[in-house]
Structures are given as C-alpha cells and as structure tokens.
Write a structure and sequence with these properties.
Length: about 425
Amino acid sequence: MLQSKLFPKTKREAPKEAESINHKLLVRGGFIDQLMAGSWTLLPLGWRVVQKINQIIREEMDAIGGQEMLMPLLHPRSIWGETGRWGSAKDNPLGAQEVMYQFKDIRGKEYALSFTHEEIVMDLLRKNIKSYQDLPVYVYHFSTKFRNEPRARSGVLRGREFMMKDLYSAHVSEKDMMEYYEKVKVAYAKIFKRLGFNFRITEASGGVFTTNRTHEFQVLCDTGEDTIFYCDKCDWGENKEIFQGKEKGVCPKCKKGKIVKAKSIEVGNIFPLGTWYAERMRVYYADKNGMKKPVWFGSYGIGPTRVLGTLVEVSHDEKGIIWFPQVAPFAVHLIELPGAKNAKSVYDILKGEGIDVLWDDREVGAGEKFADADLIGIPVRLVVSRETGDKVEWKNRTSGKPELISLEDSINKLS
Ligand code: ATP
Ligand code: MG
C-alpha cells in the first residue's frame, strides 16, 4: 500500500472530547472515526487490524468445531417476548429493555436491533433439531451488536454499536454442555495469548443473560473500567461485583497465594446458560428412548473492536501506538528518504514475498515521516535513503539501534 494514497491522513491533534488513550491515538493515526458517541467507522487501517484479530479468533473457533455463519440484526419484538427479555429489568431479572434499541416502523410494527443472538439461535434450533442425533451444534458469527450504553466515552472500548464474535452451543446434557464450556475456555485463553495480552479469567455474574455464574477474560490494564481480584499463585479470580473476600487475603482456592486487586478490561465472556432458553422457547429434542428433553445451551462472546482499543491501551508510548506483530496493520513500514534509489524495488520484492508493506512514498520531510511511523506503530521500519545504497536500515518501533542490512536478511528476519 502506498502511503500517499492511504485514506485518511494522520492528525497532529487528538479530538478535544477524547479522554481515553485508544480514542486519541486511533483517531490521530487514522484507524477510526467517530460519527457520534459510541458509533465508529473502522477506517482502512483500523479494519486491517480488526481483520487480523478476527482471523486469530476464527482459527481457534474452527479448531473446536465452530461453524461460521451470519445472522440478521433486525429482530421482531415477538421473538424477544418469548423469553421476556423485551421487558424491563425493573420487572424481570433478565429484562433487557434498558440496553436494547427498540422502535416502531411507520406502520407501527415493533422491532429491536440485535444486542445479542440467543433467541435467534434458539429459533434456528427449534426449526432444525429433532433428536439427540442432531446435537451438539456449535455455530458462531462476527457481526454488529447494538447496545444503549449510558457511558460511551472510552473510545472503541465501549461502543453503542460494536463488533462481536458470538459462539453458541447446544447439547443433550449438562455434562456435555460443561465439557464444551471448558473447551471454549481453553480456546479463549489461546486467543488472548496469541493476541499478546496479560489476562486473568474471573468468575462473574451473568447480567441480562443468566442467573448462573459466568467467566470473564480480563486484560490487566490500569486504565480499565473493571476491577478484579485474582490469586498471585493459582488461576483463581473473581470480578469485583461478586467478590466477598478480603483484598490481600489468602486465596480461597490454593490457600497459598495472595489475593491481588487490579484494574482490567473485559475482552471476553462465556455463559453456561442451561435450559432456561430452551424451556421458554420450546426447543426440545427426542432422546434415545424417544423422551422429549430441553436443549442445554451456552453462549460465548468476544468483542474484536474492544480488543482493538485494548491493544492500544496496553501497548503505546508518548509517540504513538506499538502494535504487536500478529495484529499490526502492516508487517513493515518502508520509509523512503531523499536520494533513495531502491524504494520501488524493495517494495516490489517485499510484496512478492507476501509481506504486507506500507510504503511512505510521500514528498514530505524525514521528521514528518518518522513521527507518523511512530504514531501508526508498525513494529518494523525499513528506511532507504541516499546513504543506505542497495541495503536497508532496519529499526524496531520500540527499541534498538538502526541496523544496516541487506534486503535478503530483512526478509529472513520478517518470516
Ligand atoms: P461490559 O460489562 O463491559 O458492559 P458486557 O459484560 O455487557 O460488557 P458481554 O455481553 O459479556 O458484555 O459481551 C461480550 C463481549 O463483547 C465483551 O466481553 C466485550 O469484549 C464486548 N463488548 C460488550 N459490550 C461492548 C461495548 N459496548 N463496546 C464494545 N465491546 C463490547
Ligand atoms: Mg460480559
């Protein structure tokens, strides 16, 4: 990609209303644009990062048997009436009116914009499941969620419209559901590890989804909105909302470690929902003896756009973003300075090797090029100039002295 063609250009100043780091840096770098509070465009650079994130998630979902599909976002009121979630939290513990965007069309018909998809998956199951032989089912999609968030001030960490990967599983028994739940927990841990996060798994309540306990994936981050408690020795952890122990107390699980309190960002949440949805929506299967039984159900969410913001919150400096290589919008930033003779051929060779490269071919000063490269945050920078001859100068975004090496060596270092 030629930087002279990249839309839009970087910005020197962050927007006045921006409070959070991800909001400031992602807008300045040209990754995102705000339409209104909580509503964002993923610009070409931002979309590239989100696609990298999604691909990591997709690989791990497919590895546990997930089948990708795509469900609608416009839902009739009737389906939400079946579980009572159309109603208010004031009347019903799972009432979700407060988070749902509900509206009437010009003919008075009522709809909601999707804030989640349990009811929609249940409808698919009751149309397609007959016997135990049709189970289990594992389906997922990446799509937009709409939630009427009262506070939408932390950049892409909290959108009113945001992206989610949601997986749903249906089973013949609680045992089968819990076995799969544990598999998803492992898959989620792999995903967040691959994304480069320092995270903890914490027990939490189920919000408008379930009265059961759930598990959250929390990235340790001082600017996070959540507070968690975890053991410094074992895998025990709880969200503040259910924690009843003592800070700095002894871990209730291993009895050895100390309880640590930390700020964090919730990037994923898994829910063992049980038969609550199947009973309300009449989703039954026939077991081996022909007996009618309700389907056991789980749902599992990750917010890729929140992940995008979290990556910036945990990895940046005063000059800009520092992308981890696996999610960087480009693998290499090729910076062309005056007098360079080999920029075009370096670009073509890198591309020929299948390496994603952003070529700063603009006619601007070196200072501006380096400042933009620091802001955009691509992990590896290759500089070509009058002085580099037929070689390239390799420099990491964060550290190290520039190194003059051959193009061949830099390709080897990249792959
Ligand atoms: P929170 O407690 O932060 O409001 P939640 O618990 O309501 O989030 P879930 O229903 O568990 O969110 O959604 C699954 C995932 O979707 C979350 O772990 C998060 O990554 C993402 N997510 C949820 N709400 C938002 C939002 N408003 N903006 C961006 N991502 C979100
Ligand atoms: Mg949650």
